[in-house]
Amino acid sequence: MKTSHLDLLLFAEERERIRFLLQSLSEMAAQLDAASIQQALSAIRSNLDSDDFQIAVVGEFSRGKSTFINALMGAKILPSSVAPTTTVLTEIVHGGATEFLLCYRDGSEEASISAAEFNSLIAPVEPADDDSERREFQQRLTQLQKIERVVIRHPFGVEHQGVRLLDTPGTNDLDPMREQITFDIIPRSDAVVFLLSARQALTETEMNFLRDRVLSADISKLFFVLNHSDRLNESELQEVTSVISQRLASIAPGAKLYSVSARAVLRARLQQQEDLEWEARFRTFEEDLAHFLLFERMDSKLTRPRMQGLRLCEQLITGPLTCHKTLLGSDLPGLLAAETEANHRWKEGATAFSSEIARLRRNLEQGGRDIALKLRGELHKVADVAIGVLRQGYKELSSEQIQQRIEEEVASLQRLLHVKLNDWQEAAMRSSLESSHAQISEALILSGLGPEIFGFKCSSEIAQTLEEPLLTGEHQFLIRAGAAAMGLIFIPIAFPFAIATGWFGGGRILDWLENRRREEMMAKVRLSLEERYRSTIPNTLKRFEHAWAMKVSDVIQALEASFEGRLADLKAVHTASLARIRAAEADRASEYARLQSLETRVGEVRHGLERGRR
Ligand SMILES: Nc1nc2c(ncn2[C@@H]2O[C@H](COP(=O)(O)OP(=O)(O)OP(=O)(O)O)[C@@H](O)[C@H]2O)c(=O)[nH]1
Ligand SMILES: [Mg+2]
User: Fold this and answer.
1) 271 lies in the same domain as 373
2) Which of 10, 224, 439, 478 shows a CA-CA span of 20 to 30 A to 604?
3) Domain check: are 220 and 156 in the same one?
4) pLDDT for 162-219, tens place per residue?
5) Cβ(65) – ligand 1 distance below 6 Å
6) 282 lies in which domain range?
């Protein structure tokens, strides 16, 4: 059953009611000189007004996000592979026929590219040795950077009408994509599908991401999907499911976990065969999703602005309103004295704050140097492995097989390094922030801003701005380039060797020549690999150092901006109060009554928002 006309009317009515409440709250914030609250309210209202319903599919790379969406659509539309694949945001919307549309960062659009063009654009394959193909590949990479997102129109379930399904790059992917996922996509999404892998039972990084970036964004509906379930037997799967469910329960009570195999379902659907076991499990998810879209979608669209509005009511009362009232309690001389004292406190607080910020910056910079050192060691290990594989595999393998071997060996190491680097950065950020936490809080209290750090959990939330600037793209390129170089070297060497073979025909000479040529080839290839892997290390380190420096300055700037913003709010309250009280010296009672009535009205808004809560 679809959403009825009555539901739509009720939805529209409730949305109007919430809009009205938020609007009154915003007016009161203006009367209380709380500019930052007004700003937050205007963002909430514009989200409330939008009719789109966005579902983001997120998860670390290779969890099967693209395969999962393909399975949902019953068509292989999005590219997928063992190596990190999805490089741009892809938006799937309901449409009459399948159509691919590129939206560029500069606002321009390119209509209807073909499926093949889309695939080669999103997951470009590094050419082996052809110069013109290489140029084309580079052009594609450049074009890719300019693309903001790809929109795919595709006919799928009627309940999905009006829904935007987002395929995102791995959350442990490169900057700035992850930042975009964290700060833009998740906060704007109405629901999130969080993909996990049965082979890696909810890692620490996933837990942190979930807690700090997804749950904190007031997402009203979250689906947890345990993909790759076919890789375990039933008892292993049960064990993993129970471990994950327990871990999830600690941060997302009542969360339901769907064990699926997106690959099995996609395969069965493409071949139009029933895979009864996996199909049934997948359907459970699909039915819940359809139920949600049909019956709960609209309600969920209203939940978030309600929650956010309630939080802002609280902030308005405990912040600006209380401050106004406190100031009103004193007479003019008292107020002036309070003003002088506040000025003094603000100054002291600001000094304490900046000296702590300077210390924090030094700590973070040291943390970055320590990580760079560890990273250097790990990159050398990767180079050793790449060269080691060549040494072992050279005799019996073809150059293609060698290429594959190196890719497999190095790709798994890189994935591990990705995770490690992420953990090191997060740990460095956390420990530096935690060690500064007490002093920053003191500076805040001194300035009269209250003990909490800018209204967010300092360590975890700020660590959001921090992501791993790793190597995937470049390394993939290098792996392939290394292999291509091997191919290039092999051909000129093999050619004279073949002629010599024909000429002499003798087995021994053949062996001797073969051995020599192979040794020479081996030496050249090794040299080329050494160059490719080792000589890139300084560059990779530089990139890391640069990215870390950017993170550090982002974090510091965020702290400073927040401090300054709140201090400015407080100063504005003081100034306005002073002016008002000076003017209304004669009748302070009326000013008090005004504040009292504002407080009552904020209370009414709060009550109104709570009334809609389920
Ligand atoms: N065995 C098994 N393999 C799967 C399953 N789902 C996906 N895969 C495989 O896992 C690999 C990664 O799948 P993708 O769909 O590209 O994963 P992704 O999360 O989109 O990866 P990125 O775009 O790189 O972040 C591919 O080789 C898929 O065929 C599954 O349920 N079972
Ligand atoms: Mg993908």
Assistant:
1) no
2) 10
3) yes
4) 788 999 887 765 555 555 666 678 877 889 999 999 988 788 888 888 887 788 777 8
5) yes
6) 54-318
